[in-house]
């Protein structure tokens, strides 16, 4: 914390959160399915993403996404900490800096996986280039 150049960011920079539940199709998909069903049964107001049995974006193995409001962090994250079982879970805030969100700002439950951050950077560069084309 002795970095005089450190910029202190307010938590209001966070628009919402994602939790990414990781699984291997052969060994831990059933556990991920049970976890997903338990999330629904617990009544959390979250948006559950599709099943991705293969790596997608920076995510190195199969996964599904849970999108949730910042106001639900204090109830959902402790619940996931107790119930994620054998599935590794990445929890990241969404700010205007997706690379930092998936690296420096990330929280992990269970085993920490190595995300493909260089791929994320390439995808973002491509996205930003196409946005510029739209406004040009
Ligand atoms: Zn995400």
- N-to-C SSE string, H for helix and E for strand: EHEEHEHEH
**Ligands, deduplicated:** zinc ion
| Number of domain modules | 1
Question: Structural class, from secondary structure content?
Answer: alpha+beta
CATH superfamily: DOPA-like domains
Number of strands: 5
- Rg estimate, integer Å: 16 Å
Written description of the protein model:
This protein has helices at residues 29-41, 73-83, 98-102, 117-135; strands at residues 16-23, 47-48, 62-69, 89-94, 107-109. The protein is of the alpha+beta class and 136 residues long. The protein has one domain (14-135): DOPA-like domains (Alpha-Beta Plaits). The protein is globular and about 40 Å long. The N and C termini lie far apart (42 Å). Bound molecules: zinc ion. Zinc ion is lined by residues 18, 20, 65, 92.
Main attributes of the structure:
alpha+beta; Alpha-Beta Plaits; single chain; 4 helices; 136 residues; globular; five-stranded antiparallel sheet; binds zinc ion
